[in-house]
Amino acid sequence: MLSFQQARQTILDHVTPLGVERVGLLDASERIVAEDIIAPWSLPVWDNSAMDGFAVRHDDCSNDGTLTISGYIPAGGYSNDPVQPGTAVRIMTGAPIPPGADTVVPFEETSEKGDQLTIRGSVTVGDHIRVKGEDITDGENILTAGSLLRPAEIGLLATFNKVIVPVYRRPRVAILATGDELIEPGTPPNNHQIVNCNSFAVAAALKEIGAEPILLGIARDNRESHLQKIKEGLKADALITSAGVSAGDRDLVRDILEELDVKSVFWKIDIKPGRPTAFAMYGDKPVFSLPGNPVSTMITFEEFVKPALLKMMGHRRVFHPTVRAILKDDVKKKSGRTQFMRVFVTMQNGQYLASTSGDQNTGILKTMIRANGLAILPAAPDHIGSGAQVDVQLIGGDYV
Ligand SMILES: Nc1nc2c(c(=O)[nH]1)N[C@H]1C(S)=C(S)[C@@H](COP(=O)(O)OP(=O)(O)OC[C@H]3O[C@@H](n4cnc5c(N)ncnc54)[C@H](O)[C@@H]3O)O[C@H]1N2
Ligand code: MOO
Q1: pTM for this entry
Q2: Are 31 and 163 within one domain?
Q3: Using CB atoms within 10 A as the burial measure, which of 111, 121, 257, 353 is most buried?
Q4: What is the ipTM of this complex?
């Protein structure tokens, strides 16, 4: 049986980034740029003032004399007239430095009387001038393909007039719940029926990473229903099924996938929860079959599906940030399996602390709700004492 790391790597080895599409600037937010972006001009575009004040010739500032105010350049204005010796030009932040001037003196360091200006204190040549190209030079590679477009990158693209941006396509991901016991949310449950929560938890997780969920509904525990729904799901870029993958008499998912020529890559991983997870490929489309217990579905999505989809969207970083934390509880676990423990992480005196968020049975949803981290307990020991250091993936929720 594959270990946690082997299974995750195997999945990542099977998926590749989807194609590229060109979208409007704001639609590119939080997506991955698919080509290098080259600066078409320098930034700043020209030498400009960093302060409201006076553009002067530094040589004129060395004696205690006065200068004559000879002009005014607001932001949005410019002047091609050279600043003559003995004169100063009133200039606003962002306005281009006029020829001849090499220094800006802020208003606070001057006093004015009519058109006469006195500079107080010492002035260094070049003060308060933002020099052309000091930020970015013409032809510089400003964003390499594969970069995440956060607000700062979107601003940078806007600066350079890049209103159409090449980004990796977002996967359309079909989600199929399976089981005769299931009804859809909004339907009053009869005896022995339970409401399909997995499809919605998975759809929300997909939206969080910018993938497009397609809800296929529920496949009933018979061959025809599975065939019809799975066929539909295979039209998407990826398919996620929940339940029907363990050893039950009615666990049909893997058989039907095989019947539809979906090639099994592996079944079962040495982890808890999530052992019966199956992974298969339909051409170049991944098919994830997640165990039905809601907590197992959510954790296997986080550990296996999310990194694969992020890779398909062109992301270079596909894993949750992991921190070392001190365990606050004694933990008994199954020896030989990597175990994901739902924890609540806090920070005290510069150190992360992780305490169990409650009952770790996979039937217990509440513990998932309370968790903001998953501690990854290594396979070997069957007991980890409080005070031990463990790796914890931060999975969001309340900030620590
Ligand atoms: N003999 C064995 N039995 C089981 C094994 C095993 O290895 N041998 N593995 C156990 C483990 S671990 C898990 S996890 C479950 C997973 O089984 P399935 O993926 O086949 O899921 P089901 O049995 O159909 O359902 C499990 C549980 O989850 C509920 N469920 C299913 N779908 C949904 C949904 N969409 N929304 C909410 N809840 C859902 C379902 O009613 C069951 O209670 O198998 C163990 N058994
Ligand atoms: O592996 Mo099951 O997913 O423990 O609940």
Answers
A1: 0.89
A2: yes
A3: 257
A4: 0.96
